[in-house]
TrEMBL record:
InterPro entries: Apaf_helical, LRR_dom_sf, NB-ARC, P-loop_NTPase, Powdery_mildew-R_dom, WH-like_DNA-bd_sf. One of its GO terms (molecular function) is ADP binding. Residues 3-156 form the RPW8 domain. Signal peptide: none annotated. This is RPW8 domain-containing protein. GO terms for biological process: defense response. Belongs to the disease resistance NB-LRR family.
């Protein structure tokens, strides 16, 4: 009896080996020649290769066969049937979709039976990766679900969507899910884009949506989920839809147009069923693909996730960052997966670490995971390194790779790439005036003087979610400068990314030097390398309120743009700027509560090549008049400055006052000595904005014969303009917005024959316009909303033959309608009047 058992077992062993070898040969042959079943066959081949070592070792195979004889014999027969099943693959007509599904399902079942029969030995085999084994099971189960769903559908035409699974732990997205679901189901837009920077959880949110019961109840199995690569074409995306959701892999399209037409035909055949096409991770260069996938099919929606904004296509849902509570919950889950681990780390350290991640889910995930199981010492040293200037990206490559991808996508826009890196020049968590960026970029990259190309860079970065552009004026005109009153904000980690990417080269070789000084702690490299020349074209130095303005020498003769950021009550300019002979743009900004008092302003007079200077939230002294020596200065901006008597002509030893009086009375420009003016003589742009103590504009402004743009806005103490304003013969743009105490315009304004844009909106004190306003025969745009004291217009406005746009409130519009027949090209644009805002301007 025992001998008989041995014979049977030996016979089964031989037969099993034979059948398995023949099955392996059949799988290898069909994999090469039958592409339509290649995915399933490759999985089966992988399983057989894992089993092969067991076949070679009789002892181990005997253990496998040490089970009821009947079961072993049945399995041997099953292998024979499996070989025939594999050999039949090449004969299956995949145009008959149901046949392909049924056959693929049989192959997957064969794979499962192999794994089940050899499971114990496979699990004990050190040569078999348990991770790979689990992957095989998961893939098999997912395909089983897909194929069984399709096979059970009437007609067997489409498969259910293979929506990726959800992470084990999700926090902070429930509210976003409700709002996104509302937009998708209620909004009339066919395309809805979920937009946010990398690492914010866009894909997770959309997966949640696809798994939502209400969404599944609406779209059923007609949810097509496609991950779009950067190099994707319309043709490849349609191929994915046919391959992954129809399981027809041999579809060949002649071109994109053919693919588009066939997809539209296929979707149209679905009748009244609703369809959701999900395009995950779409890049900016693929915008045209989204447009091509829009079809006039009722119930058909497209949901897009992207780091970019596609504002011209459908609706956009902006996914924000996590709030403090949700951020801590997510971080805690990654850093302390087991209860009790947190006892080794204080709550204070956890709060600081969470705060450093700035609410970005990817940062919270990667930083939390990196600190899992680490002691408190590791936490403290990590925070200390970051506080000393080491980047968070130095220890988190995954975070760096994810966020950097958006920047690397600018490779075909090199100037926009550089513009992004320049954003690291400004302090953390502060608004950046768009016009300040324009000044930097125009000079650094040789863009047009008007800044239109610079504006394009700004809009490009905004469309890619690399910055946030806030529009402060809905009725902004191109003539006055699109970004004149707009500002930029940026996520702290994107700012840190800009700094990190700018700091990869050795310090002397960097083209962009971004320096932060805390207290009087000058960086060591600066102290040690005072004699070494820097190559930087842009230099930014940020100091806090405790900095004593004691500077070490710095040799940076190639600097073209200098950005000085301070918070102190007093601030002394660094003496080394005297050697910056190539400097073209200077930006000095105080971010403190009170304006910083500037000292050593006379150093500016050494900057002979300076073209643009911006002073923001600083207190000026008469020494600022040394700027009059800057012959090349073209643009000068005073933003929220405390001006006092700094620009008064009496501050300079010259007969300016008496001569100016004579000029204003007689309009004799020749009698005034231009050399004594406190203003640079060749200015083309002059800006005063929010200078709260500015009561009078220096009369010397009237001698800036090259001036093209004069902007005096939000200066609520200003009550009069110089009488000689009309001498600015080249002036094209005059902005007087929100000068609430300004009572009138000078009569000489009629001499501004080149003026094309005039803005007196919210000048509440103006109750009449001079008759000479009609002599502005070049005026095209007139903004005057909020001029509630104005009761009538002079009849001379009928001479404004080139006037195209009048932007005003409803009350003022009636005054202009009286002259519509005389001004046939004029368009009256009524804007909503905000009385409360006007009141706040006066109170402010």
């Amino acid at each position: 009896m025992e001998t008989h058992k041995m014979d049977v077992k030996g016979g089964n062993e031989m037969e099993l080996k034979t059948e398995l070898v023949e099955l392996m040969e059949a799988v290898a042959s069909e994999t090469k020649t039958t592409p339509k079943f290649r995915t399933v066959l490759k999985r089966l081949d992988r399983t057989l290769r894992n089993i092969e070592p067991i076949l070679r070792e009789s002892g181990r195979l005997s253990k496998v066969l040490d089970r009821p004889e009947q079961e072993t014999e049945m399995f041997v027969k099953y292998l024979g049937n499996g070989k025939r099943l594999v050999m039949e693959c090449s004969g299956i007509n995949c145009l008959i979709v149901n046949k392909k599904f049924v056959h693929a399902n049989k192959l997957i079942h064969l794979d499962h039976e192999l794994l089940r029969f050899f499971r114990v030995e496979l699990q004990n085999d050190m040569s078999v990766s348990m991770r790979a084994l689990t992957e095989i099971y998961d893939l098999g189960e997912k395909m089983d679900q897909v194929l069984s769903t399709v096979a059970n559908r009437a007609g067997g035409f489409l498969s259910s969507c293979s929506v990726p699974g959800l992470p084990d732990f999700i926090v902070g997205l429930d509210g976003h899910l409700r709002e996104l679901k509302r937009i998708l189901l209620k909004d009339d837009s066919q395309v809805v884009t979920v937009s946010a920077p990398g690492g914010c959880g866009k894909t997770t949110l959309v997966k949640m949506l696809c798994h939502d019961n209400e969404i599944k109840g609406t779209f059923g199995d007609n949810i097509f989920y496609i991950t779009v690569s950067r190099t994707a074409s319309l043709k490849t995306i349609v191929e994915k839809i046919f391959a992954h959701h129809l399981h027809v892999k041999n579809c060949e399209f002649q071109n994109d147009e053919d693919a588009k037409n066939q997809l539209q035909t296929m979707l149209s055949q679905m009748g009244s069923e609703k369809i959701l096409l999900v395009l995950d991770d779409v890049w900016g260069e693929s915008e045209s693909i989204i447009r091509d996938l829009k079809f006039p099919i009722s119930g058909y929606k497209i949901l897009v996730t992207s780091r970019f904004l596609f504002s011209s296509i459908g609706s956009t849902y902006h996914l924000g960052l996590l709030n403090d509570e949700d951020a801590r919950t997510l971080f805690y889950h990654l850093a302390f997966p087991c209860d009790g681990d947190h006892i080794y780390v204080s709550d204070d350290l956890i709060i600081k670490m969470v705060k450093s991640c700035k609410g970005l889910p990817l940062a919270l995930t990667t930083v939390g995971a990196s600190l899992r199981g680490q002691g408190e010492h590791k936490w403290r040293t990590t925070l200390k390194k970051w506080s000393e200037g080491q980047s968070i990206f130095d220890s988190n490559s995954e975070l760096l790779i994810s966020l950097r991808a958006s920047v690397d996508a600018l490779e075909h826009l090199p100037i926009a790439h550089e513009c992004f890196l320049d954003l690291g020049s400004f302090p953390e968590d502060e608004k950046i005036a768009a016009s300040a960026l324009m000044d930097l970029w125009v000079e650094l990259y040789g863009l047009d003087k008007e800044g239109m190309y610079a504006i394009e860079c700004l809009l490009e970065l905004s469309s890619r979610n690399l910055l946030n552009l806030t529009v402060s004026s809905k009725d902004a005109s191109e003539l006055e400068g699109y970004c004149n009153e707009h500002y930029v904000t940026q996520h702290d980690l994107l700012r840190e990314l800009a700094i990190h990417l700018s700091s990869q080269e050795p310090i002397p070789q960097r083209t962009r030097m971004l320096i932060e000084i805390h207290g009087n702690d000058i960086p060591t490299w600066w102290i040690e390398q005072t004699q070494q020349l820097m190559s930087a074209r842009l230099l930014s130095i940020t100091t806090d309120e405790t900095f004593s303005s004691v500077w070490n020498d710095l040799k940076a003769p190639k600097v073209e743009v200098l950005v000085l950021n301070t918070q102190g009550k007093t601030y002394t300019l660094p003496h080394f700027i005297k050697t910056m002979n190539e400097l073209k743009a200077l930006n000095i900004t105080s971010y403190g509560i009170y304006p910083s008092e500037l000292h050593e302003l006379t150093l500016i007079s050494y900057l002979s090549n300076l073209k643009r200077m911006r002073l923001e939230h600083v207190s000026l002294s008469p020494s600022v008049q040394s700027i009059s020596q800057l012959k090349k200065l073209q643009k000068l901006s005073f933003i929220m400055c405390e001006i006092g008597n700094a620009l008064e002509s009496s501050a300079v030893d010259s007969p300016m006052s008496s001569n100016l009086m004579e000029f204003e009375m007689t309009n004799a420009l020749e009698s005034y000595p231009i050399d004594s003016s406190p203003m640079p003589p060749n200015l083309t742009e002059l800006e005063f904005n929010g200078c709260y103590d500015l009561k009078q504009i220096p009369a010397s402004v009237c001698y800036l014969v090259h001036l093209e743009k004069l902007s005096i806005t939000n200066c609520h103490e200003l009550d009069a303009l110089p009488k000689g304003l009309g001498s600015l013969s080249n002036l094209e743009i005059l902005r007087l917005h929100s000068c609430t105490r300004l009572a009138s315009l000078p009569e000489s304004i009629g001499n501004l024959h080149n003026l094309v844009f005039l803005d007196i909106s919210d000048c509440l004190g103006i109750n009449s316009l001079p008759y000479q306003i009609g002599e502005l025969n070049g005026l095209r745009v007139f903004k005057m909303s909020g001029c509630h004291g104005l009761e009538e217009l002079p009849t001379s406005v009928t001479n404004l033959s080139l006037l195209e746009d009048v932007i005003c409130d409803e009350e003022t519009s009636y005054l202009w309608r009286y002259y519509e027949n005389d001004l046939r090209d004029m368009k009256i644009n009524v804007v909503e009047d905000d009385r409360l805002a006007n009141l706040m301007k006066i109170v402010g």
